[in-house]
Amino acid sequence: MFFSGKSHWVRLLSLVLLVAMLASCTATPTAKPAEPGADNGALQPLVDAAKQEGTLTTIALPHDWCNYGEAIETFKAKYGIKVNELNPDASSAEEIEAIKANKESKGPQAPDVIDVGYAFGPQLIDEGLAMPYKVSTWDSIPANLKNADGYWYGDYYGVMAFEVNKDVVQNVPQDWADLLKPEYKNQVALAGDPRISAQAQMSVYAAALASGGSLDDVQPGLEFFKKLNEAGNFVPVIAKQSTLAKGETPVVLRWDYNALADKKALEGNPEIEVVIPKSGVIAGVYIQAISAYAPHPNAAKLWMEFLYSDEGQLIWLKGGCRPVRFDDMLKRNAIPQDLLAQLPPAELYAKAVFPSIEQLNAARAAIAENWDKVVGADVK
Q: Is the pLDDT of residue 38 over 80?
């Protein structure tokens, strides 16, 4: 699914507070409150029930995305529960479809938990796809970043960036308009299919902001990608670390934390530069939810407890993702100074904007519906 200094986080979280909160009024069960981030025995009945189930089925969790590899291995070692990992490269829409397709199944293809784009929150409720559950650290999750009834909750966020293979690209682009230059022919790619991928859709959204559009008007973003495609600069391939490293997609539009993870993993071979564009800086929140049809509901709840503990939040932060409980942890001095020192300068993210759920839903629908007829590039 990320910078130095408390002032940056205050500014970012102030921006996040502008996001409209999904309101509801029904109370839901919650875990017995524990000390923030600590398992003091209050969770033992849940731990025992989860161990009896023995398995947790996840989907769309690449190990290099927000440091999920460490999160999964730590969870397995901590609780002795097997993790069945489905399709690590699935999109948010595909995660939801996996729940729908396995409503009547308790088999290994039925996901227990999902991690999807913020805009998918209302759909989970409207279609009855999520199970309400409030983790023991619930009160430290900002109110605007969680459904009041516990059907979903924000987990982390980042900003859209350019990930550039410097062994191939001599002049590293600094803004969206640069990508239209002839020198980037056959070089620019998305990290997903914009018809179904939240990450790819947010790239189009960001391009719209940089091209005269607004949070309520994504059409300029589609027109931007039409120009990019007509110029021969757009590569209709879903970019991954491997395609980036081989030079097949030397400029990738993706979340900063994913780009930074690639940079760390590749260790200079090739050299990667991560650029926050000068304009069109958009931030994206992802959310967690438990499937209403989860074959292992207790393991799913325990997974959420782990992710929203201090331990889990720090694992995400190590992966470059800004965890949703960052502000609470900062106030309690629960974030190691060496980890804080690794975060990029705050001024790079001062221009970041956070769309509301309503704006995201409108943008997502417009991009999915109009990509083929406006851009005409079959990304796969």
A: no
Backbone angles phi, psi at 158, to 5 degrees: -150, -170
pLDDT digits (tens, 9 = 90+) for 132-175: 999 999 999 999 899 999 999 999 988 999 999 999 999 999 99
Chain CA centroid to CA 258, Å = 9
**DSSP codes joined into one string, 349-363:** GTT-B---HHHHHHH
Q: What is the dihedral of CA 363, 364, 368, 373, to 10 degrees?
A: 10
CA pair distance 237, 254, nearest whole angstrom: 13
- Flag the least confident range among 117-121, 190-194, 373-377: 117-121
Write out the DSSP string of 115-146: EEEGGGHHHHHHTT-EE--B-TTGGGS-GGGB
Helix (H, G, I), strand (E, B) or coil at 232: coil
Domain count, the chain: 2
- Asked if residues 33 and 234 have their Cβ atoms less than 8 Å apart, the reply is no
pTM: 0.77
Question: Do 217 and 170 belong together in one domain?
Answer: yes
Distance CA 166, CA 154 (A): 34
The CATH code of the domain that includes 170 is 3.40.190.10
Asked if 279 and 169 sit in the same domain, the reply is yes
Per-residue pLDDT band at 263 (split at 50, 70, 90): very high
Furthest-apart CA atoms within the chain: distance in Å? 62
- Distant-in-sequence, close-in-space partners of 6: CB < 8 Å, separation ≥ 6: 330
Clarify whether residues 55 and 117 are in a common domain. Answer: yes
Q: Quote the distance between the C-alpha of residue 290 and its chain's center.
A: 16
- pLDDT classification of 14: cutoffs 50, 70, 90: very low
State the residue range of the domain holding 217.
Answer: 158-283+354-367
Check residue 234 and report its DSSP letter.
B
Domain match, 180 and 279 both? yes
Q: Answer with the residue of higher pLDDT: 334 or 16.
A: 334
Mean pLDDT value across residues 236-260: 95
Helices in 127-255 by DSSP H: which ranges?
198-210, 219-230, 241-246
Measured distance CA(308)–CA(324) in Å, rounded:
9
